[in-house]
Amino acid sequence: MSKGKLFVISGASGVGKSTVLSRVMAARKDLSFSVSATTRPPRPGEQEGVSYYFVTKPQFEQMIAEGAFLEYDDHAKNYYGTPRLQLEEKLQHGHVILDIEPNGAAAVRKARPDATLIFIMPPSAEVLEQRLRSRGDTSQEQIALRLERAKWEMDQRSWYDHVVVNDRVEACADHILQIIAHAADEN
Ligand code: 5GP
Questions:
Q1: Which residues lie closer than 8 Å to 50 by C-beta, 6 or more apart?
Q2: What is the pLDDT of residues 27-81, one digit of tens each?
Q3: What is the pTM of this model?
Q4: Do β-strands 95-99 and 31-33 pair in parallel, antiparallel, or remain unpaired?
C-alpha cells in the first residue's frame, strides 16, 4: 500500500497552473510533484528533471514500448507521459500531484480511482487567450492549436471532482490547499 494520496491538476494552457502549483507545493512539504517526460523542447528557465524529463521522440516511443508510463498523451504535436516507477516511489514517501491534461486524468482515474481530480478554469475565455498570447515563447501555430484544445479541455471539467477558478493566484492556491487537506487527512 502506498502511503500518500494522489492529486491531479488539469487546466488549459495559459490558465496559470504552474504559478498556482508552485504556491501549493511551497505550502505543503509533504506533497511532491510528479515530473513528466515530454518531447517538447524546454522553455526558458525550465530545468531537466525538475520541470520535465526532456526526451526525443524515439526515446519516448521506446518508453511506451517498455510500459514505463502510467499514462501518456500527445498534445499540440508533442508527447507527454507520467513515469510509473517514479510516481510509485514518490507515493511511498508522501502525497503526489500530477499536472496532466484530461486524457491523462481519465487514465489516472481508471488506474487509481482514489485519486482526487481538480480542474482549474480561467476567469473567462478572453483572459485565457490574452495570457496565452502574451507568453511570447509560443508560435502562432502553437497558440491556435492550444486555443482549440483549451475549448475541448474546459468541456471536460464536468467529470472532475473539483473545479477551481484562477481569478487570483493566492485564492486559487488556497482553495486547492483546502481540497488537498480534506482528502489527505481523511483515512
Ligand atoms: P506544457 O507544454 O504547457 O508544459 O503542457 C501542456 C499540457 O500537457 C498541459 O495541459 C499539461 O497539464 C499536460 N501534461 C504535462 N505532463 C503530462 C503528462 O505526463 N501526461 C499528460 N497526459 N499530460 C501532461
A1: 35
A2: 999 999 999 999 999 988 999 999 999 999 999 999 999 999 999 999 878 999 9
A3: 0.93
A4: parallel
Q: How far apart are the C-alpha atoms of 116 and 71, rounded to whole Å?
A: 16
Nearest CA to ligand 1 atom 21: 100
CATH of domain 6-186: 3.40.50.300
Pocket (CB within 6 angstroms of ligand 1):
10, 13, 36, 40, 71-73, 75, 80-82, 99-101, 103-104
pLDDT 10s digits, 157-170: 999 999 999 999 99
Nearest Cα residue to atom 2 of ligand 1 = 40
109 CA distance to ligand 1 centroid (A)? 16
Dihedral angle of Cα 63, 64, 69, 73, to the nearest 10 degrees: 120
C-alpha grid cell, residue 47: 530545468
The ligand 1 atom at the shortest distance from the C-alpha of residue 34 is: 19
**Extents of the domains making up the chain:** 6-186
**Which three cell numbers mark 161?**
471532482
